[in-house]
Amino acid sequence: MPRIVGLRPYQHRSLPLEHPGELPFVVLTGARGLGKSAVLGELRDAYKGHTPVALVDCAEAQFAAPPPERPAESWSPVAQALLVVAEQLAEPVTGAGRITFPRLMSGLVAVAAGGWGDADSERIRREVERILLLNESGSWISGFAGRWAGKVAAKVVAAATGTGPLVSGAIEATLESIAEGFTSRRHQKASIWYRTYPNAGGHAQRGLILLSGHFRAGGTSREHAERYLVRALLTDLTEAYAGVLPRMQRLGRPLVLADNVQTGPGPGLVDAVLRDRAEGIADQVAFVAGLRGDGRELLRGGVRRELAGVARRSEWTPDPAVPSSRALLVALPPLTPDDTLHLVGAPAAPQLPHAVHRLTGGNPLGIALLAESAAQHPERAGSLGTLLTADVRPAEDGPAAPAYLRLLDRLVPADRLDELTVLAAAHDHDSACALAAALLPDDFGPADVRALQNRLAQEGLPVVPGQFVGDPFVRTLLLLRLHLRDADHSGWRTAHETLISYYTRDRPDGQARFRLHHQLALGRTGPAVAHLRDSFPVLDTRGWLHTLRFIAAAPYFHAHDAEGRDFGGHGDRRAAVALGRTDAQQRVPDGVDAVLHLRIRRLLHAVWLLTDPLVLPDPKVGDRLRFELEQLSNLRPAGNALLWRASRDWPAAALAGRPPADPEDDESDESDEGDDERSGVA
After folding, report:
1. 3-state secondary structure of 472
2. What whole-number distance in Å separates Cα of residue 370 and Cα of residue 377?
3. Residues 215-250: pLDDT tens digits?
4. Which residue among 271, 272, 601, 634 is the one 20 to 30 A from 482 at the CA level?
């Protein structure tokens, strides 16, 4: 950003501009929680006071609807955002005074006047004063603005009583007041700027009347008017930097930061700037936006770069025929394990940073909140599950709340939290529909399921075959909420029983691993052990290992007794089973190989525990996992290489905080190569 703004961060020292002519509209893309808002906030802090800076969040409530007394025909999210941006840009900076916005003020007064038909003079005065004062109470302009607002209000009240047209009266007073209050050539030029409005015929007052009418008409006419308002803001800013003296006083470029531009005024603001730049209407304002998702819908033709690729130069060149190519889309990557180590610090449990990175996938918000939970509850640092359920008190004043709920508030759409909580257990559209039919209201049908799945993709969550919610971290949080939503975990059990039934009754052609996965989530280990034991001699090794990993990925949020039922204790029996401490009490079914049965049982529990993203890895269980896979490799000569490689790779991945992957086959002539998708169907 220093090369775009032309200033060193936190300093009033200039830098050479990378794009001295036309500059890119920088858009930070990515899913929720990747740090877009944090980057924008840091940029504001770095340049505030050194160059004009404005930061708006397009998702704020002030852009969702007009104030109660303001008619909808005289208000829009874009017009409101322009006012908020101008209020911030007007603040004085080092070496230069405040910027005034006569063009934008005139346009906003004309727009507001369209809603003053039955307004009282006090409301009119209040609206006009905010437009004119731009939040600069106590400055020299406040007295002038008050007189100006009073004059406009008097004109409008007179027009409302029948002495003249209302809108034209307000506009006439505005233009007259500019002429009377400002004597500089620059402000006089601003008072006649609207002469060039289409069909104005060279008359500024007529141009503003047309602008007000187009705005009230709505639709594409309003978009046309809003585009002129955006142009007015940029023209006022450009003129503030024109001339010898302003250039000597003002270093760098003004900076406009807009978060969540996928909503509210965001699309209109972005489109207006890009279209004007494409048509050769230049400005020298540095724009940086945050956009949830990848921006393919809003900015289909945007130039895409990775963050590392723009560290030194952006290498950005727009396509003259594509307005959206003026946008430079920069994807924010997840944090690395080293980044996580620095954020988490040195906790009592040395494996915690790696475990946090595995759980969050490098999500900065998740890492930061888990680090805060560990700092506030050091006694819980041995389990990510307990850190997620612990109450975390924010740095600012506010009530404490469980960490997982705070994360869900930020990471998923609030209006669909209940639906996603249920559907997170699903694997695809059809299984999600089965869950919706069982646990969601009747008016949430298949079309709503598909729309929600598309929405997650649009917001930047990965699309992963076999999971309705593709992001593992978000899915874990949602499943935790499903488990804890009912004191007796009834909703949790109903969801998994529904899917067990679905994959038994509605999918008789196979996919047994899905049924076994959900049975294991309810603590029923017997069916999974039997399936893995009986399929070991007949399934290809790669497919068998894939099935083992899939089944053992079942979530585990609550202790179970020997029969799989929830109980009130906090013990986790998986380590005891994996280490063979319960073998003596285990009854082996008649007619099966007892040694193989117990080995598969130990192996399943070892993988289940070591791949659990909420549990810190146990080195003893890792050693046991290695041993059991080694012993199995001796039983399958054809699959020996894959089993032996898994015995090395899987424990190492678990201890390093990585999810296990399918083992690579070191022998090119290995006859036991299977296709994951095919062999996973058992």
Report:
1. helix
2. 10
3. 999 999 999 999 999 999 999 998 888 765 555 567
4. 601
Give per-residue pLDDT as tens, 327-372. Answer: 999 999 999 988 998 888 776 678 899 899 999 999 999 999 999 9
Report the side by side order of strands in the sheet with 286-292: 53-57, 255-259, 286-292, 25-30, 327-331, 303-306
Q: Tokens 């607002």 label which residue? A: 149
- What six digits make up the tokens of 170? 């307000």
Alpha helices in 331-471 (DSSP H): 337-344, 352-360, 364-376, 384-389, 403-411, 417-423, 429-439, 446-458
Helices (H), 48-184: 77-89, 102-113, 121-133, 141-158, 166-181
- Residue type at position 492: W
Residues 6+ apart with CB under 8 A from 261: 27, 58, 267, 269, 270, 289, 290, 291, 298
Give the count of beta carbons closer than 10 Å to the beta carbon of residue 385: 22
How far apart CA 112 and CA 174 sit, in angstroms, is 12
In the chain, the amino acid numbered 620 is K
- Please, are residues 305 and 29 in contact by the beta-carbon 8 Å criterion? no
Return d(Cα 596, Cα 439) in angstroms, integer. 40
CA–CA separation, 655 and 540 (whole Å): 27
Which whole-number Å values give the CA distances from 264 to 13, 109, 196, 260, 449, in the listed order? 35, 21, 29, 8, 24
Contact status, residue 309 vs residue 284, Cβ threshold 8 Å: no
Q: What is the pTM of this model?
A: 0.87
CB 415 within 8 A of CB 422: no
In this prediction, residue 505 carries a pLDDT of 75
CA distance readout (Å), 653 to 305, 356, 384, 626? 31, 14, 18, 12
**Rg, the chain, Cα only:** 32
CA gap 655, 648 in Å, rounded: 11
Cα–Cα distance, 456 to 449 (Å, whole number): 11
CA 70 to chain centre: 32
Tokens of 655: 């201890």
- In angstroms, rounded to a whole number, what is the distance separating the alpha carbons of residues 106 and 98? 18
The label of the residue with tokens 């999918």 reads 507
Mark 62-83 as b/e (b = at least 16 C-beta within 10 Å): ebeebeeebeebbbbbbbbbbb
Cβ atoms 79, 111 nearer than 8 A: yes
In the beta sheet, which residues pair with residue 54? 256
Cβ density class 206-239: b for 16+ within 10 Å, e for less? bbbbbbbebbbeeeeebbbbbbbbbbbbbbbbeb
**Res 423 pLDDT > 70:** yes
